[in-house]
Structure formats: C-alpha cells, structure tokens
Amino acid sequence: MRKTLGILKNSLRLTFQELGGNKLRTTLSITGVAFGIFCIVICLSFVDSITRNIQGEVKSLGSNTIYIDKWDYSGGPDQPIWKFRARPTMKYDETGIIKQKSQLQGGVAYLMQTGTSISYKDYVIQTAGVYGIVEDQIEIQPLKFEQGRYFSTNEFIGGANICIIGFANAESLFGTTERALGKQIEVKGKKVTIIGVLKKEGKNFVGWDYDNCIMLTYSFCKQLFDEDNSSPIIIVKGKDGVTTSALMDELKGIMRQVRKLAPTQEDNFSLNSVEAFSKAINEFFSLFNIAGFVIGGICLIVGLFGIANIMFVTVKERTPVIGLKKALGAKKSSVLLEFLLEAVILCLIGGAIGLVFVYIAALIATEAAGFPVYISLPMLITTVIICLVIGIIAGILPASEAAKLDPVVAIRSK
C-alpha cells in the first residue's frame, strides 16, 4: 500500500512538472474540456433552477387546481386564437352553480384581472395589475403577507373600498412597506385604503405578478371595471384524494350544462390544469438540456482528441526518460498510471475552469432572471465523473504505448 502511494505521489509530482513546463500546450489542451463542461453544466444548472422555481410557483397556484377560462393555456401553433376570442367570458353566477353541483370540489373562486394606474399624492404607477377576488381565493392560492391582513367576510359582502397591495408597488409609492398600511391610494378616481402588503415574490413564470398588483374585493372591483373585459376566470380546487382527471371530467359536464351546450356542440370554455401547465413548461425547458449536452458533447470530443494528441506528443518527448525508468525497474503499471494521471489531471483542471465560468455565469443569470441559479451537488459529482472518463479515454492509448516501450530502444531513441 505504501509503495503504491509512493508511486502515485511521484507520478503526480512529475505530472505537474510537465504541465507547468508546457503552459501553452496545457492551456490549449484543456480549453475544449473547459468549454464543454461549461456548456453542459450551465444548461443543466439554469434549467434545473428554472424548473425548481416554476414548481414553487405552480404550488402557489394550488395543487389539484383547475382554471376554467375562455383561453387554453397549453398554447401551440394549432390553437385557433380566433375561436377562443369569440367564446363567452366566465360569469360570476357560474361559480355558484359549480359550488352547488360539484361533488369533488374543495373550493371555488372567481377572479377578475385587469390593469390600471394607481397613485398616492404625486407618486403614480402607470401599470399596476388589478385582481378582483372572492373570499375563497386565499383557500386556493395562499397569500403571504409582509404587513397587514386579508379581507374579512363583511368586507367581501359590502364591497368595501379597501385593497391589498403588492410589495413592489408599496415600495414605489411609499418608500417602505411599513408606511403603506392605512394609506389611501387613488384607483380609477376612488380613494382606496390599504389593509395589507404582500411579501416579495420576485419574477414569475406562470402569469401572476403579485409584487406589482393591488387586490380588491370582487364586489368593489366590478364597480370600477367592466367585468367582461377584465379576463375573468373560475378557479376550482379538488378535494383531498380527488384526481385531476376526475375533477376535470366532472367540471366539463357541469360547464356544458351551465352553457346549455348540445351533445354535438364544441366546448366554449377550457379546463386548464396546473399539472398540465407545469408539465408543458418542463418539457419546453428540457430542450435546453439537450442543446447543452449536444454543444458540450462536441466540445468534449474536441477536447478529448486534443488531450490524446498532446499525450502522444508527451510520450514521444519523454521516451528516453521512460526507457531509463523501466531500466531502473519501473513496472508497466507505474508508467501507465503516470500518463493516465496526467491526462485525467488535464481534464480535471479543464473541468474546474469550466465550473469557475459556470459560477460567474450563474451569478449574472441570478441577477438578470430574478431567481437563484445554482450548481447542485449532483452536477458537481457528474462533472468530476465526466472529467475522469474523458481523461481515461484520452490517455489510455498514449499511456499504453508508453508502458509497452522497450527500455533499451527507448533510451537509445534520443
């Protein structure tokens, strides 16, 4: 064991001496590996971070939740936009019918969504999102408060002129969120008192922008905005243990009854599930993984041939030294190990440089995207394994050639 460790230590020392003595050659040989690792890891990190962020946002939409809308959220080139636009909008009365007829629902909410300018004294926000909500909204989509509270039942019934404001809007109008509570802002010429400030959520992929919104009770919101032009939707949450497909089947039957559609008529509404939406987004971003692997794989192959070529040159340059070592009793295995280590270390250095650039890119992406982009432990382990495999593949032929050299012939080759 001690002898093996001694050989390994000596091989490492010689390897670093060779690498240090041929800086240009070393740099050129590791560039391909570094760029390949960078392409693979940055794509995997970015897609993984996006996926985690989206999954968190999807959970905020409510698990086992169906969005009933005139629009189909799946998108795609085959979607007939003109047909969706011609559909009737969702109606508040339909919410009550669904509550009565559905045996699988665990909550039904109605939501108006539009936009307008809001102001406080001389401070104006030109485009603030407006959500007109009903009491069950918080049961389906839990809200986190930085300050204040949710609407009370009486406030929903009475249509009180009060609101909940998003974190970014509160900071824009009042400087700090603490100063927002109790203040009156102007919305469509009406004075509205702030009773709550939502926690900061950051940029959102799924359509909701709570940071830049105000929330009003439905009763008050419909006094200010035209309901049909406010993109109203119905949100239905299934009971515990109810599958999404069962809930969708039941809701489809109820909505067809509500809309009085004949058996031969097409649906004039869409049932959009959170799970399907999440799956579609994940499938879209998985394409970036494939692109990263393809680009990175090409770079790694170029790096592999580059390192193999360098190693063949190195073996040729050090042939007399190899012959001398073998004449003094060095075994084939120790010579083989020495050159394999050199190839592997080249790849590991290239991988380390690639990870440094990935880290820098992740910091930049985090700042630009508004959510954390990170390198996970499994990715680091995968990077090390890739570098080891590339190093072994690139170095095995040159190392074998070195190990097979005849000591007499090798010494006289100089």
Please report which band the strand proportion falls in: under 5%, 5-15%, 15-25%, 25-35%, 35-45% or over 45%.
15-25%
Roughly what is the average pLDDT, rounded to an integer? 83
Strand order of the largest sheet: 2-3-8-5-7-6
Radius of gyration: 32 Å
Largest sheet: 6 strands, mixed, barrel
Q: What order do the helices and strands follow?
A: HHEHHEEHEHEHEEEHEHEHHHHH
Count the helices. How many? 14
Distance between the termini: 35 Å
What is this structure's SSE topology?
Layout: H1 2-21, H2 23-61, E1 65-69, H3 81-86, H4 92-101, E2 105-120, E3 123-133, H5 137-140, E4 145-148, H6 153-158, E5 162-165, H7 167-174, E6 184-187, E7 190-198, E8 213-217, H8 218-224, E9 233-238, H9 244-258, E10 270-273, H10 274-317, H11 319-327, H12 332-369, H13 377-403, H14 407-412
Parallel strand pairs: 3-8, 5-7
Antiparallel strand pairs: 1-9, 1-10, 2-3, 2-6, 2-9, 4-7, 5-8, 6-7
What does the model show?
It contains 14 helices and ten strands. By secondary structure, the chain is α+β, with helices and mostly antiparallel strands. It folds into two domains: 2-57 and 285-412, no CATH class; 88-268, no CATH class. Strand 2 (105-120) and strand 3 (123-133) form a beta hairpin. It is elongated.
